[in-house]
Amino acid sequence: MYLVLIALAFFLLIIAATGIRIVRPYERGLIERLGKFKKEVRSGLHFIIPFFDRMIKVDMREHVIDVPPQEVITKDNVVVVVDAVIYYEVTDAFKSVYNVNNFEFATVKLAQTNLRNVIGELELDQTLTSRENINTKLRTVLDEATDKWGIRITRVEIKKIDPPKDIMEAMSRQMKAERSKRAAILEAEGIRQSEILKAEGEKQAAILKAEGEAEAIKRVAEANKYRLIAEAEGQALAISNVFKAIHEGNPTNDLIAIKYLETLKEVANGQATKIFLPLETSSVLSSVGAMAELFKDRQTEGNK
User: Fold this and answer.
1) Residue partners of 291: CB distance under 8 A and separation at least 6
2) 102-158 pLDDT, tens per residue?
């Protein structure tokens, strides 16, 4: 009898243990009773009725799906191999279980299909240089499609895009030619800029030299001008003093005539062939003529 009771208690203990469920903080629990959804529970300790209730746990953390590499045809009919990864998180545990069967598999297939559509609208050069745009478009399309599954696509990343080998070789040659072209352009631009700067420097030097010579000529002319002015002022002052002294001495006409003859003698010693006399000397010359007649008469009387 005791053995039966012990066995019964042990059996009840096992049944009670099967009714205990623990939900972790990053999980949600969906409880079904006799095949019908009853409620959703959060983290903690929960009890269910054995054989009647069933709990489905859903992981609410962010997940990563590796999209297998696949061949995609671009707009210009080039076959490329594309590999991508998808980051997603469950936002509604009920929808992720009851609205889709194996949502991870469905998400991968949906990503592959839309990846063909997005890249099929781009040419090869755009495909290789527009990864960020491809990621954004693909994430938007997937997020809209998976919204009814209770899933949010957080990020889509294209890991690699591999064109055919011959295309890669052609692109490598094109890139090399482009670099050579840029190098030649930069070298020519450098030479041109150097010549321009050299010519500009020579021009500036010539301008500065010409300005210096002009300034020197100007200053020499200014110095000569001041020298001539000073000499003229000195001569004018001297003549003025002489004229003043002569008038203050009250000279006679005979004295003036003799001094004038001395002046003519000095003028005659020069290289000039012509002598210009002012009109004011007519009275002086008449005096000189009179004195000459006087000297002639006295010489005649002496001879006699």
Assistant:
1) 254, 257
2) 888 888 888 888 888 888 888 887 888 888 888 888 888 888 888 888 889 998 888
Regarding whether 144 and 80 lie in a shared domain, the answer is: yes
Instruction: Render the burial of 195-227: b for 16+ CB within 10 Å, e for the rest.
Output: eeeeeeeeeeeeeeeeeeeeeeeeeeeeeeeee
The overall pTM is greater than 0.70? no
Residue where a domain stops, chosen among 31, 59, 87: 59
* Whole-angstrom distance, CA of residue 130 vs CA of residue 115: 13
Domain that includes residue 300, residue range: 253-265+278-304
Residue with tokens 């000459």: 292
